[in-house]
Amino acid sequence: MSDLFDSTAYYRLSCDRYGQETLLSDGYNADAPDPLFLGTTSYSSENWQIYFQDEVYFIRNFDYGANYQLAVSSTTDTQPQLLPTTGDLAQQWNITIWPDGTRKLVNMAVGEFQILGVSTNSTDFIIPVMNTAEEGSHWTFDINSSAGEVSADMTLPLSSVAKASTTATSTSPAQSTATAQSTSPVTPATSTNAQKSSALSSGAIAGIAVGGVAFAVFVFIAIFLMMRKRSRAGKNAPKELLTSNSETYRDNPYGSQALHQTTHQLPAEIYVDRKIRASVHAGAVEMPP
User: Where are the transmembrane segments (predicted)?
Assistant: First the structure.
């Protein structure tokens, strides 16, 4: 961001709501600054230096020189005031250009959601406030050459300027360092996780191999037992068949007993037949009783 102002000159500030004759002022010069207001009375305190350093602006008053700067006392403070000079964010301003060529002022501690404008609630004074209304926040900066140039001490840079967080326009070196330190331990953790993942993959492969071998052994044993069982069944088949036949004949009246009797009677019939034949052959027929 380039410097929009001449840091050696004084400017008078007016807003779009009240015109260029109503100027931002601190009133009469005193030991300590009074609350700010906008008025038409001419005061020396209506002159302001716009000092640019480290991409931000510091706004100083003619009456109080480099000792005081326009600021907010906290991020919740809605009324800017002159406070003892520091490089804090609360004393830093981002000044940009509205489309109509006027200036927009944003406090670096408060952020973009509020801009420097004027209050509509006061009946006695026009008070500068931080608010969200665009009306009254268009500021005109006019060089007042009659005020002369700023003193030499007002051109000296501040010894330190605070940097905005990542939510603002820049990041402080301290925060960048902290970020680097917080992220550096992550790399070994990632490497460790990768090693664990690799080890897990090796273990899984070994488990699959062992499981495959165990399954092959199981199949071989199952086939062996099946073949052995069939072999035994073949050897016992005749014995089981005889036992089955014996059981069948036991309940059959023409079973094994009848067959046994028939077998024993057969020789007697053959004997009778032979005896008859012998009698016929001898010439005498003798019937058996």
Answer: 204-226
